[in-house]
Design brief:
Elements: H1 2-21, E1 27-31, E2 34-39, E3 42-45, H2 50-82, H3 88-93, H4 111-118, E4 132-133, E5 139-140, H5 143-154, E6 158-161, E7 165-167, E8 170-172, E9 176-179, E10 186-192, H6 200-213, E11 222-226, H7 227-230, H8 233-244
Parallel strand pairs: 10-11
Antiparallel strand pairs: 1-2, 2-3, 4-5, 6-9, 7-8, 9-10
C-alpha cells in the first residue's frame, strides 16, 4: 500500500514538473496598486497582463504542490527503507521459549484441521488423464498446471486439485482450491491452457460468468491464468504472494 502511494506521488510530481516547464519563471509582487513579475531581481509590470497574472498564480500553486509531494515521497521512501518483510513463517520463527517447540501447524487457522483431513481424498474424475505429477506427487492433467502446483508447494500452501466444492447449492470443480493456513482464506485458481481448441473460449467465458455469479471476484477470491502465465514463474509468484498470501498490494490494471 505504501509503495503504491509513493508511485502515485511520483506520477503526480512528474505531471507538476512538466507543467512548470511550460510556465514563465518569476514571482508575483505588489507595490501599491501595481503588480510586477520579478525575475532575478528584475521587475516587469504585469498589472494589465491578465494572462501573465494567471500564469504566475498557477506557478505559485504548482511550486507549493511540488514541495509537498517531494516531502511526502522522502518521508515514505525513508519508511520503506526501514521496513522489513513480515511473513507468517518468519513471525512464528521468531518466537522463543515454549512456543519455539510447538509444531508449526499449531499456529494455523482452525479451519485447517478439517482441510487437512479432506485434502487426502483422491480425485477420481477422468483419472486416466492425470498423467503429470507435482514435486510433492500430486497427479495433474498438464505440465502447465504442474508449474502452478510446484510453486504452491514451494510456498508451503495447501491446495486441492479439482476439488468438488458445493457453493450456494451448486457443484464446482476448480483446478485449484487453495487455503492460506494462517488466515483460513480460500482462493480458487482456474488455468485456461487450451484456447487454441475450438469451442474452448466459449466454455471459458461461461465458467467465468458462473464463478462471478457465485460470488468469486477475479484476482480477489479467484485467479485466472493462461499459458503465457504458466511459463512465467515471476508472474505466478506475483499472483501467489499478492493474492493467496496477501503480502502486497492488490493487483492494478497494469499488472493484469
Amino acid at each position: 500500500m505504501v509503495r503504491k502511494l509513493v508511485n502515485m506521488y511520483y506520477k503526480k510530481l512528474g505531471e507538476v514538473t512538466k507543467e512548470l516547464e511550460s510556465i514563465p519563471t518569476g514571482r508575483l509582487i505588489k507595490r501599491g496598486s501595481f503588480f510586477s513579475q520579478v525575475i532575478d531581481g528584475k521587475k516587469i509590470g504585469v498589472t494589465k497582463n491578465e494572462k501573465r497574472l494567471r500564469q504566475l498564480c498557477r506557478r505559485k500553486y504548482l511550486l507549493f504542490r511540488e514541495k509537498v509531494l517531494k516531502k511526502n515521497i522522502s518521508i515514505l521512501e525513508s519508511a520503506l527503507a526501514s521496513v522489513h518483510e513480515v511473513t507468517d513463517e518468519n513471525v512464528i520463527g521468531s518466537f522463543t521459549g515454549a512456543y519455539s517447540e510447538m509444531p508449526i501447524e499449531y499456529f494455523y487457522h482452525p479451519v485447517m484441521e478439517k482441510w487437512l483431513v479432506e485434502s487426502q481424498k483422491e480425485n477420481l474424475y477422468r483419472k486416466e488423464e492425470l498423467t503429470c505429477k507435482s514435486n510433492n506427487g500430486i497427479k495433474l492433467r498438464s505440465k502447465s498446471e504442474g508449474f502452478i502446483a510446484n510453486l504452491l508447494e514451494f510456498y508451503n500452501l495447501f491446495y486441492w486439485y479439482e476439488a468438488k466444492l458445493n457453493v450456494k447449492g451448486e457443484t464446482i470443480y476448480p483446478d485449484f482450491a487453495i487455503i492460506n493456513p494462517y488466515t483460513g482464506k480460500l482462493i480458487l485458481w482456474e488455468h485456461f491452457g487450451a484456447l487454441h481448441l475450438a469451442g474452448y473460449a466459449e466454455k471459458m467465458v461461461e465458467k467465468m460468468d458462473r464463478y462471478l455469479r457465485l460470488g468469486y471476484v477475479p484476482f480477489e477470491t479467484i485467479i485466472y491464468t493462461f499459458e503465457p502465465d504458466a511459463l512465467n514463474p515471476d508472474r505466478l509468484r506475483y499472483l501467489i504472494e499478492n493474492i493467496v498470501l496477501n503480502r502486497g498490494n492488490k493487483l492494478s490494471e497494469d499488472s493484469l
